Amino acid sequence: MNREQLKTLILTLLIIMSVVFTQQIWFHSPIAILQSEASSQERQLKNIEKKKEVIMPKRGIVSFGNNYHTIISTDIEELWTASKVILEDFFTGEPEVISTTYDKYRENNRLKSIELEFGKNISSVLVGSVFDTVDNKIVMNIKEVKKILIPALNRGVIYIVGKEDHVYEVKLDNHQENRFLLALIDDLQTANHIKYYPLFADVDNYTVMPLSYQQSTPQVFVESNINVENEQMVIEEVKSFFNESLDFVKTIRETSGAIVFMYGYGEKGVRINNRGRLEYTEEIRNFSSSNVVTALEIAIEFVEDHGGFPEDAYLKEIRYEEKKGYYFGFGYRIEGLPVAFNSGNLAHPIEIEVYGDKVRSYRSLIRKGKNLPNVSPTNYTLLPQKIIEDHIELLKADYLADIEEKDLLEEKEILNYIERNIAQMELVYYDTLEDARIQLLIPTWKIKINKRVYYFSSYDGKLLHSGLVN
């Protein structure tokens, strides 16, 4: 074989190798890229659906007319789904938004209607995003949604309570009447339900109270999602915060039983205490501003990537933090009742701070049902008004301690103040946080009177906790 033939052979081999490698690039790599893109899109769609799930009312108050109501917490999803069918037309259409009075709101609330109560500082743009619209007449005119009132005989009018309790009437022309909501209210009225009534309407307080409570709510055994004594579980839980590797992460076990994982010189860290409360922090130096929708999507993606949301989770509070950041607080329900606790380090079961496209902090304490039978009570649930009556001396003393003017007031004036300022009343599962990982949740009446919130056992009326609120 001469030199020219050798060159030809080598050139031929190079061409064949080039074709083979090109085939590898053009036929195999695009498949991997397409698979990666498909997985990313699937994940994005999943997070969008989760966003729509957590943006929901914390409870619904159904009016049967003549000032009789019932409160829906357990089946709020069904009520919310039915309400969305009507609300979608208002958020995607061209309604007229005008200011109105609280008296007009009350006038419609006395008739058959559904009142949806949302969490604290819930932006209207987030509620609009549930209907895939963030630029509409409602968002332009109303920045915050506290409550939405939908009259049962809906004829193109709903009412929204916004920031500082400002009331808006939202009118939609050419609206198709929907009687499904009326049918739902009628079904609830004929079914077994707790009747509520505004007992203090004579002093212009329309907070509804149960007339009777012939139902028993059991105590529930729960345990924390994270068992700090299970080292392998803790490691698996923590690895996701450090790109699945703890090679350069320092581990410290505190005398309290908590475990701390620290990367670098405190740039990133995770702490899990003996109850299973997790706290993640990351130092953020540079970040750009983001809107509340994007920030919530980032928060949801982060939670989903690090353990996920508990069942029946919902958005409870939003705060705009300094330096263009957002705080999101999430709650969840167990057996239909909201879970509540009091901790100096944690206001809600899940808290997350988003700055730009980065998560600065994430805190959570999630309980799950333990495979133990519930503890059935021997008596029915006490009425909250009976509990208020039994603790009236405590309430009077707290009122006198909280007021700025220390002038002597007549007892009748103090009692009138308490009746006027009962702003919230709901049954919750209260976590006393007394035990470590395993806890017995107690059904508790949460009663808010002006600046203070009280937690009373629904079994015997015992005060479990009280404190000032913002």
From TrEMBL:
Gene3D superfamilies: YycH protein, domain 2, YycH protein, domain 3-like. Pfam families: YycH. It comes from the Bacteria. Residues 4-369 form the Regulatory protein YycH domain. InterPro entries: YycH, YycH/YycI_2. This is Two-component signal transduction system YycFG, regulatory protein YycH. It comes from Natronincola peptidivorans. The lineage of its organism: Bacteria, Bacillati, Bacillota, Clostridia, Peptostreptococcales.
